[in-house]
Amino acid sequence: MRLAHLSLKNWRNFKAVDIPVADRLFVVGPNASGKSNLLDALRFLRDVAATGGGLQPALEVRGGLKRVRCLAARNFNHGRVNLEICLSDIANNTEWTYELSFKSEPAGRHRPIVFSEIVRRNDEIVLDRPSPEDENDKERLTQTALEQVNTNKNFREIAEFLVGIRYLHLVPQVMRDPDMGQNGNMDPFGRNLLVRMSETNKRTLDARLRKINEALRVAVPQLQELRLVRDAAGAPHLEASYHHWRRNAVWQDESDFSDGTLRLIGMLWMLTERSSRTNQVILMEEPELSLHDAIVRRLPSLLSRATRHSGTQAILSTHSMEILADPGLGLDEVVILQPDKEGTTAIMAADLEGIEDHLALDFGLNEILAQRTTPSGIEKLSLLL
Predict the structure, then answer these.
(1) Within 10 Å of residue 276's Cβ, how many Cβ atoms?
(2) What region, left, alpha or beta, does residue 163 occupy, with left being phi > 0 and alpha being psi -120 to 50 degrees?
């Protein structure tokens, strides 16, 4: 099963978004255009479906309904927030659609409540809320059917798919701090990466580290071997040996690694971790940070190989024109965010006016999109101080 479509209304930066999702999707746009918020829509649905999660906790951690509702939308959609995903199960010739709409209680505590929740399997409606039971007990509308095992039985495939979504935005400083070691399996910032590695069975861990070692030897000069060890207190650490003028290699742990090395390790681990499970979605925030341009240019092909072998989909936000320079990047794999007073719009590269003509003139996709993602008047920035 794979994510085929994402539609949003009144969500954060977006008044309305409706985009197809390929096996790779690169989200580009200026700062504060909503790249992170687009990815967060999928994280939000994951948090709703997750064990111990739900609609109320997922909204609370984001600051409540007023923080996720689009400020630019005014009373668009009557103030309701809508999220809809389409999942394609090619093996079983099935298409699932999940649509969730929520709003604030009209009176009382003004809690977020479900306005509608609809599930379709092909053309069959599997769930349609509010139900008569909901109308008789309004308290039921504070929860989605998605988050409850007794009500999602007929569409549990959707819940399981959403729970499998993974997000990475590794912060090297967080990973280096041993006092921030464990913070749940959903931590996106590398806080518990070493713990996750240490909890992997030895055979699988060794296989993944071998793959990561091969990649690091190419990308990181002088790095010879990466291994996972435990200190005297039992805490896990990564150690890497580096070629040196001394006869024996010098071992360093993660506190000595460069930011780029840590981010690359985190990305490679996620790709190998996901490769053991099919039909998963990986969300990445600006994976090019701290990496050499030569590595960044090869990220699309790295993701292509990972997704092709495992069925995994990769959705990432980026400012990097090096990534967009990849000649294998399809027009259906890039979405451009364009902020405006009425909210951010999203347009697929394939739908840009005149893009085929520009490509025919041998302009690269990176050159074409640079003009659309660079703030107007940016040349004045150096004159302001």
Answers:
(1) 12
(2) alpha
What the block records as the tokens of 298 is 């090869």
Unique residue bearing structure tokens 């992170």: 36
| Position 63 confidence tier, pLDDT thresholds 50, 70, 90 | very high
Q: Minimum mean pLDDT among 58-72, 196-210, 362-376: which range?
A: 362-376
Q: Are 287 and 26 in contact (CB under 8 A)?
A: no
Task: Write the CA distances from 216 to 196, 253, 307, 339, integer angstroms.
Answer: 20, 15, 20, 38
- For 106, half-sphere exposure in the C-beta direction (CA atoms, 13 angstrom radius) is 3
Residue 356 is which amino acid? E
Q: Are 16 and 344 in contact (CB under 8 A)?
A: no
Q: How many CB atoms lie within 10 A of CB 279?
A: 18
Overall average pLDDT of the 35-47 stretch? 96
CA atoms within 13 A on the CB side of 49: 22
Q: How confident is the model at residue 212 (pLDDT cuts 50, 70, 90)?
A: very high
pTM value is: 0.90
Neighbours of 123 (CB within 10 A): 7
Q: Are 171 and 289 in contact (CB under 8 A)?
A: no
Q: Can you tell me the distance from the alpha carbon of 314 to that of 187, in angstroms, rounded to the nearest whole number?
A: 18
Q: Taking a C-beta distance cutoff of 8 angstroms, is the pair 269, 195 a contact?
A: no
Confidence band, pLDDT 50/70/90 cuts, at residue 101: very high
